[in-house]
Amino acid sequence: MLKLKLHWQILIALIAAILYGLFLTEFVDYVSWMGTLFLRALQMVVVPLILSSIISGVTNIGSGSNLGRLGLKTMLYYVLTSTFAILTGLFLVNLIQPGVGADLGFSQVIDGLEVTEGSFGDTLLNIVPKNIFEAFAKGNMLSVIFFAILFGFFIIQVENKYQTILTDFFNSTFEVMMKVTLFVIKFAPLGILGIVAKVVAEQAGDPAMLLDIMKRLGMFMVAVLAGLGFHAFITLPLIVKFIGGVNPIKHFKAMTTPLLTAFSTASSNATLPLTMEAVQSNDGVSVKISSFTLPMGATVNMDGTALYECVVAMFIAQAYGIDLSFTQQVIVVITALLASIGTAGIPMASLVMMTIILSAVGLPLEGVGLVLAVDRILDMCRTTVNVWSDSCGAVTIAKSEGETLKI
Question: What is the pLDDT of residues 363-396, one digit of tens each?
């Protein structure tokens, strides 16, 4: 029996939703509940997934031997490149403004939104929760992420027997939450049917609306692809050339197979063995460097994903006619950076992370329905950038440590 891949199911659901909303307007309530249920399910998994993911990641990379010079170099590279990527995306989405002036049928819900306000100082203070369980319940993601990093760090400070128990517990919890998350994501086509059908039905009879949707999504894709292209072909090669002292063109040729694999599978985890083989055999990076930096990068270094999530949040805010302040945009940058650390290297995992950023600035989760139509192709592109950044980090750090043979 032929089983369609998820992205094809989503495309079919999107087309069906548009047709349903246009021609069965009076029956839209029969399917709109599926969108609501899907978004509730995403909200359900976000807190336990991000908590277990970050704690698991910190404990697994934070052993005493990994917190020396090599560990600091690696983490500094990941934070800097992810920050550069997010700022690139933020600049381009503000320049292109794909959602500004959109007529997408959202004006009726703007009055009910509670967009996060406050000064930058208040934002920093609110990262530290007064009650972590309250933060869990309310979905205050910056507080949850801060607590997860803190908790994970101090797990590695306790006695080995306690460290082992807690590390195993959170690794197991993360694996279970990944299974739950993948189960929820399987229902994305039904969720899209419910979300998009409702939006289309609310604007039924207005052909200009559909044209506007396609136009805005096209501009959104341009903003994302331009940001990914700039980061992949300008920012990262400059880092490789001037900080790592490596020829970026030779390195790109060495990475051809892993990059093509990353593009076709949209999974950095699935590409990891090929990435390690390429940097070791073609670039001459030592096993010591590649075995440390690349698995860590596949877990916490998500430049393309971080850029994409930032652009998504800004696009949805623009589509809803919400002008995010400087402080709110800073929150988007910080949350995109931290959330990208917890993004699993699997297709569609960023769908969950979108809800984290939207929640952080009080934007409506229904907005994710806008971008899922084009998410698959962008997922392939941003995964390729993720893997490219990991490999650039490996050769740059290897060169600085004198652990390379050929470049």
Answer: 887 777 778 778 878 888 998 999 999 999 999 9
Mean pLDDT (whole number) for 84-101: 91
pTM over 0.70: yes
pLDDT at 290 over 90: no
pLDDT in tens, 149-158: 889 889 988 8
Whether the per-residue pLDDT at 161 is higher than 80: the answer is yes
Please state which architecture CATH assigns to domain 6-401: Orthogonal Bundle (1.10)
Cβ-proximal residues to 385 (8 Å cutoff; 6+ apart), any chain:
85, 228, 231, 232, 303, 304, 307
Distance CA 8, CA 14 (A): 10
Cα(194)–Cα(188) distance, integer angstroms: 10
Backbone dihedral angles phi then psi of residue 186, each to the nearest 5 degrees: -60, -25
Q: What residues contact residue 130 under an 8 Å CB cut-off, 6+ apart?
A: none
pLDDT in tens, 38-80: 888 888 887 888 788 778 877 876 555 545 677 788 888 988 9
CB 62 within 8 A of CB 153: yes
Please tell me the distance from the alpha carbon of residue 215 to that of residue 209, in angstroms, as a whole number: 10
- Mean pLDDT calculated for residue range 181-208: 78
Domain boundaries, the chain: 6-401
What angle (nearest 5°) sits at the alpha carbon of residue 70, between those of residues 66 and 72? Answer: 85
